[in-house]
DNA sequence: GTGTGGATCGTCT
DNA sequence: GACGATCCACACT
């Protein structure tokens, strides 16, 4: 599986501007290697969670619990947790130690290991929803809480810059999904996605 | 295409 | 004991 691309360095994740990182993650390739099986694709949808001052964040008010502890680690690790009792979610921890910022990976455009992803998702036929939505991304890539807090410099879960870029015109910037309870913070333009990409979950009409 | 409800459990109050 | 950074199937238009 040798290729000419290298892992994105830790410095990329240690940027304290989580919204900027969420935007810059669009177009980056995300991979997992589990039991020798490599799966991945490029990120087409993200959401920023702005730590202590963001009501939608698990770390709002600097809340530190066994679950949220991972968010307080230095940027460049994965924060994985269970939602609705069913779905695992993958987040990229951003900034420095004790700054609990993270970016939720909501969708990828699958590129490598389609057959493996299809099998993990129990799909008879490959459809866009194979990696549409955060729960689906984690399931297709085999991501679970067993690898919570793993380094993105590992050979199990990592990101690469393969030179794919999108201009601001090609990226929609809209409010996040499913965070109505966060009151005014629910309106913040912290969600980014590639306009017109078929893997984006719930694209906003007209954008 | 749109809307509704069921699944299912860890985490924190 | 309540609820969540969700997904899917199925009904109905």
TrEMBL record:
InterPro entries: Formyl_transferase-like_C_sf, MPG, MPG_sf
Enzyme class: hydrolase
EC number per UniProt: 3.2.2.-
GO molecular function, a single term: DNA binding
Keyword tags: DNA damage, DNA repair, Hydrolase
A GO BP annotation: base-excision repair
Gene3D superfamilies: Methylpurine-DNA glycosylase (MPG)
Family: Belongs to the DNA glycosylase MPG family.
NCBIfam families registered for this protein in UniProt: 3mg
Name of this protein: Putative 3-methyladenine DNA glycosylase
């Amino acid at each position: 599986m040798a290729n000419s691309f290298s892992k994105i360095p830790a410095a990329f994740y240690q940027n304290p501007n989580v919204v900027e990182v969420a935007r810059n993650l669009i177009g980056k390739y995300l991979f997992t290697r589990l039991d020798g099986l490599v799966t991945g694709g490029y990120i087409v949808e993200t959401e920023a969670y702005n730590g202590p001052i963001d009501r939608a964040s698990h770390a709002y008010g600097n809340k530190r619990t066994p679950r949220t502890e991972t968010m307080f680690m230095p940027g460049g690790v994965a924060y994985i947790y269970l939602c609705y009792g069913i779905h695992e979610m993958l987040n990229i921890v951003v900034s420095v130690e004790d700054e609990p910022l993270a970016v939720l990976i909501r969708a990828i455009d699958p590129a490598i290991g389609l057959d493996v992803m299809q099998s993990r998702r129990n799909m008879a036929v490959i459809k866009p929803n194979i990696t549409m939505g955060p729960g689906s991304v984690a399931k297709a890539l085999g991501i679970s809480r067993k690898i919570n807090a793993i380094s993105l410099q590992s050979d199990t879960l990592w990101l690469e810059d393969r030179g794919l870029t999108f201009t601001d015109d090609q990226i929609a910037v809209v409010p996040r999904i499913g965070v109505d309870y966060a009151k005014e913070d629910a309106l913040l333009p912290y969600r980014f996605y590639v306009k017109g990409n078929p893997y984006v979950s719930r694209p906003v009409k007209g954008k």
